[in-house]
Design a protein that fits this description.
- Two copies of one chain form a homodimer.
- In chain A, 41% of the residues lie in helices and 16% in strands.
- By secondary structure, chain A is α/β, with parallel strands linked by helices.
- In chain A, the strands form four sheets. Chain A has a seven-stranded mixed sheet, with helices on both faces. Chain A has a four-stranded parallel sheet with strand order 8-7-6-9, sandwiched between helices.
- Chain A is globular.
- Chains A and B meet through helix 3, helix 6, helix 8, helix 16 and helix 18 of A and helix 2, helix 5, helix 7, helix 15 and helix 17 of B.
- Chains A, B: Its EC number is 4.2.1.20.
- Chains A, B: Belongs to the TrpB family.
- Chains A, B: Keywords: Amino-acid biosynthesis, Aromatic amino acid biosynthesis, Lyase, Pyridoxal phosphate, Tryptophan biosynthesis.
- Chains A, B: InterPro entries: Trp_synth_b-like, Trp_synth_b_CS, Trp_synth_beta/beta-like, TrpB-like_PALP, TrpB-like_PALP_sf.
Chain lengths: 455, 455
């Protein structure tokens, strides 16, 4: 009865540097292109949107970037985060696999997103920015940025997908509590929003539309910048504090993962826990399997194509090299709103293309079945996004049992489900429906693209 | 920039014993009385409701009770909980006071309540109990017991005050996720419920009615017991893990509190953080001020009387020595549902009577103003119950500033407000109303009592 359940670290063990995997990639990520000329864009094109330090980080090839003291101070509010051994789940599955999870839901915003929201707000503050605009779907990112801007005294304006704004009012109230202003998107505050509303006054909105609105506003005003919660290189890099802490924790547990699993939306969750371990594969020839777990209803990594595509709906962003389903692809309204983005970031896409990482897709019912098993054995009620990782872990643990081998599995429990109880209720009352996407739908969406292919 | 924000402990530092303050009280708590005969009741009267080990703890005068290994293993899911120095709040208040908070919201149920739910479920399991009934108001206790019963595979039946059942559906869904069954109270499943419904089919319910229902069911069936989330001696004792950890953490910080503040409902929150420190007052002559912070709308400690009263509405519980507003007192529907109980437990009441602790009352608007200040400086959004402690801490910190003295203040941040965002929204939109209770209302409620006075 003296098993170690929780592996904790002290504040002194918060990482001092972020890890930039670009330095160690055999094939570097392809550059963003200008949407009109299709020529690679320079840092100056991004200057209206982001502070210079974030642009520098976006294009950096240094393997390590120092975390500012002020950011580490604020990380202390919830970091280092705990790692747990899932004894309860292991027992239920009767598996020889050892299962560990890193729990990012202890942040005030309830997910891993503040790991990048804090440094983004910090660099904006350093460069005199007064207001930051952003979009949010399910609300995790909008909450995280509101929290960070609240601490720095920066005005925060969040464009929240109308369907979520109406359906998840508590997330909006959370952002208000931290002092942010939240608008339903499409709104009448931007050309992008007005254009959509003129065609469809009842538009439920989408992440792509909300991005267009937030970007448009940032470009109009010198004191306003834009912040993105995933996809971009600097965002992924900020999240590597998760994996760097995890390495220290696994060492303390006297163990090391054979398999790492993380939910996959735009890539920051997966990169956060995975890249510091992947570094050992790239630089030391280790063979840790890194699995990105996405939804079957938005299967960009498993059924998308690798080509240039827009980051938003209205074409206000550069073209990015992505595994994509097409920027007009509208995924079914699954509860894991954070995984409904049409494309994957440039780094993750290149790694997948090069066979250095794996991807799996999981349907919604399997996810919630896994989430309930987890809640009743480990206690924590996971976010719907996290359930994609848990379902994938259960698959791998069952495989280990069938094969009679012990595997060590680590996954990122990226957030709690306190704002998603309605989804659990639907599942428990048998009302949760599955959303399958047909090959015809994917092909139709991809056929609309006229952006450059990648050899 | 190397200030320690968070003081953490390792699993090995989870306390091995609970502290029973009864051993050190100069005047012991008065015994419960039979509601009919007004004679002190023996342990056998409680046997239909509680497992024998909990009854033994209820009447124990030993200063220390060993925490079973199995309970300590499950405490590891969230314990030890972190302690934080509130640098952000201190800076906002510009106070010479040093403010610390112990954060109990990291438990899966989001509050301190699992500290007693886990051992209560454990002892029931040990004695072969198959089903536990309980009541819940705002839902914190029902969630905690559902979580604990889920881990032990015990059936859990929660009677949730109708007004909360309708108004806080997410709390109900949380309990269902852990496998519990939740009924709105009054229900048609008990004589107590049917009796109320026959007089008023639209009754919004109350904690007193829900207790009557849960107790009635437990008394009918040998395999069913009842569990209470506050008030009773054993419940308060289980919560002392909070204060025992806090002492170790304060020692690590090289500091010790002059003032301790906790929200006050039935007493378990306050006892949990306060009693281990109060022990130093009782046994070593220390002078730490322990302040219970309750709502002005349910001011049992500041405006109630000390006498015997019933624990429930229908008279199914023994008579308990309480500071009470009368068991028929219906407090205004403030958002801090956990603080709406009419009476205080026997131990806390005796300590207040003997001048060994203090009490303050705070109104709802002052509480939410304090909660918003806290969220925007420290990040965490507090539960409405916790805001009563924060408002009181701000009063004491401001007093320290006026007096030009440095004080060390520690408070119990007993839970997060993720299920209370509607309350913050009401406050921010100016719709939150104050509920003052008149002296006439209190006197009218107390005049109905025909229970024994206490000299």
């Amino acid at each position: 009865m003296t098993n170690q359940k929780k592996i904790t670290l002290t504040e002194a063990e918060i990482p001092e540097k972020w890890y930039n995997i670009v330095a160690d990639m055999p094939n570097k990520p392809l550059p963003p292109l200008h949407p009109g000329t299709h020529e690679p864009i320079g840092p100056e094109m991004l200057a209206p949107l982001f502070p210079m330090e974030l642009i520098r980080q976006e294009v950096s090839t240094d393997p390590w970037v120092t975390i500012p003291d002020e950011v580490r101070e604020l990380y202390k509010i919830w970091r280092p985060t705990p790692m747990f051994r899932a004894y309860g789940l292991e027992k239920l599955l009767d598996t020889p696999a050892k299962i560990y999870y890193k729990y990012e839901g202890v942040s005030p915003a309830g997910s891993h997103k503040p790991n990048t929201a804090i440094p983004q707000a910090y660099y904006n503050k350093q460069e005199g920015v007064k207001r930051i605009t952003t979009e949010t779907g399910a609300g995790q990112w909008g909450s995280a940025l509101s929290f960070a801007c609240g601490l720095f005294g920066i005005e925060c304006e969040v464009y929240m997908v109308r369907a979520s704004y109406d359906g998840k009012p508590y997330r909006k109230m959370m952002m208000n509590t931290w002092g942010a202003t939240v608008y339903p998107s499409p709104s009448d505050r931007t050309n992008a929003g007005r254009s959509i509303l003129s065609q469809n006054p009842d538009s439920p909105g989408s992440l792509g539309i909300a991005i267009s609105e937030a970007v448009e506003l940032a470009m109009q005003d010198d004191h306003t910048k834009y912040a993105l919660g995933s996809v971009l290189n600097h965002v992924l890099m900020h999240q590597t504090v998760i994996g760097l802490e995890s390495i220290t924790q696994m060492e303390k547990a006297g163990d090391m993962p054979d398999i790492i699993v993380a939910p996959f939306g735009g890539g920051s969750n997966f990169a956060g826990i995975g890249f510091p371990f992947l570094r050992h594969n790239l630089t030391e020839g280790k063979k840790i399997r890194c699995i990105a777990a996405g939804p079957t209803s938005c299967p960009k990594l498993t059924r998308g194509v690798f080509r240039y595509d827009l980051g938003d709906t209205m074409g206000m962003t550069p073209l990015l090299p992505m595994y994509t389903l097409g920027h007009n692809f509208i995924p079914a309204p699954i509860h894991a709103g954070g995984l409904r983005y049409h494309g994957a970031g440039a780094i993750v896409s290149q790694l997948l293309k090069d066979g250095l990482i794996e991807a799996q897709s999981v349907n919604q019912l399997e996810c919630f079945e896994a989430g309930i098993k987890f809640a009743r054995t480990e206690g924590i009620i996971p976010a719907p996004e996290a359930n994609h990782a848990i379902a994938t872990v259960i698959r791998e643990a069952n495989r280990a049992k069938e094969e009679g081998v012990s595997k060590t599995i680590l996954f990122n429990l990226c957030g709690h489900g306190h704002f998603d109880m309605g989804a659990y209720d639907q599942y428990l009352s048998g009302k949760l429906v599955e959303h399958e996407v047909t090959q015809a739908e994917i092909l139709e969406s991809l056929a609309e693209l006229d952006t450059p292919l990648i050899a």
